[in-house]
Amino acid sequence: MNAFAIGHAELYIYPEKVTPHDRIVSPQRIDVTGTQDLLEVLTSMPAQTSFSVLLVINDCVVGNGKYFMTHETVTILHEYGACIGFLVKPLAMLREARQSHAQRHNSHDPIQEQ
Fold first, then answer.
1. Closest by alpha carbon to 54, among 63, 41, 42?
2. Under 8 Å between Cβ of 107 and 100
3. In the predicted structure, residue 79 carries a pLDDT above the cut 90
4. CA distance 74 to 13
5. Mean pLDDT over all residues of the chain?
């Protein structure tokens, strides 16, 4: 974590169903200080994962949220304080990346090329 950052997000991740190729397979805490780090963590989460976010600035919690990730979307269970709307942009970016990946995967499907 960046020593000069005044704030960070603490993600508490609880995967419920994992497969051998999943990178996060057990409950854990991950701290992130930027959008790119957050996207990497969201991308590495398996579907069927519950996770909580605490937003911390100057060692004070300024917001929290609870979420559930599926293959298609992330459901917002609750958000308070600075967490209200916090994941909107990262989730939109994640959705776009998944759609782009799916389109590339489907366009290179050898069955369709026959």
1. 63
2. no
3. yes
4. 13
5. 84
